[in-house]
Amino acid sequence: MNRKFKISDLDQETLEAKIDSELELIWSNPNSRVGLHSGKSRSKEHVRRDIRQGLAAEQYLIEKLGFTNDTRSFRDVYNEAGIPFEVKTASSRDKISNHLEKCKKLKGWYPETFPDHVCMFNVDIQTSDDYSYEFEGVYEWNGSSFEKA
Known about the structure:
Layout: E1 4-6, H1 12-27, H2 44-65, E2 68-69, E3 77-78, E4 84-90, H3 96-109, E5 117-124, E6 132-141, E7 146-148
Parallel strand pairs: 4-5
Antiparallel strand pairs: 1-6, 2-3, 3-4, 5-6, 6-7
């Protein structure tokens, strides 16, 4: 697997359609406008950037690695074996553990529906609008936390 990609490597029309769809879903609920990291309300453009950052990683898995979209609300992808994956992007390697802690909380709150597998990407959002991504790894639920597979 190629571990690196840029947003420009993806089908832009498909990606933009998914971004627009998810943006409307999130923007229609004022509670969803609050940033997970900041706890503060975000502008519509800020929400769009956050969606774009995450959906690009999902789209990469779909276009390049044969994953399929999970069409349920706020779900990510299935691998070729039909196993659901949560997809996370971290803007620095330091933030990966924060994301995994949030996944652990979500798994605790929703044990039957939150996936046992997390696909993590590191993303450089400083470069331009054509963000650079690098696959960080797959993390699996071990019954008490997510650990690198």
